[in-house]
Write a structure and sequence with these properties.
Elements lengths: L1 H26 L17 E7 L9 E8 L5 E4 L11 E4 L4 H36 L1
Antiparallel strand pairs: 1-2, 3-4
Length: 133
């Protein structure tokens, strides 16, 4: 039964990483420059997960990588913007606020489902111990 705890814990950890990426995406929704101050829009981060054992043989879900979304940036015509190109278009991050909010709700619900599974397993184990005593 302790493996069930490991599975639920791995799911919670994976969803926490996913929520962190979503928060970063939303925080950089309008970031048009890189750290050096050069026009370079932020790229959306995506968390890749895989089912199965980690390197220690523990079952569950694991984060395999956090990658940049290769889709092109949003182009907005604003010739007065300091980061506008010669054509007057500003390259904004490829982040869609509605998509990120839906993903955040999905990740939160998945996290809650793992908490529920963890609590249910804990309750079953406690009941089993009471029966044996």
């Amino acid at each position: 039964m302790f493996g069930t705890f490991d599975i639920s814990t791995s799911g919670m950890m994976a969803q926490r990483v996913r929520l962190t990426a979503i928060a970063s995406n939303l925080a950089n929704l309008n970031t048009t420059e890189n750290a050096a101050g050069q026009p370079s829009p932020y790229q959306r981060e995506m968390v890749l997960m895989a089912a199965g054992a980690d390197g220690k043989g523990t079952p569950g879900v694991r984060v395999t990588n956090v990658v940049k979304d290769p889709s092109p940036p949003r182009l907005v015509y604003d010739p007065t913007h300091p980061d506008a190109g010669t054509d007057g278009y500003v390259k904004y991050p490829n982040v869609d606020q509605a998509t990120e909010m839906v993903d955040a709700i999905d990740a939160t619900r998945a996290f809650q489902a793992n908490v529920t599974a963890f609590e249910s397993t804990k309750s079953i184990m406690a009941s089993s111990l009471r029966i044996l005593a």
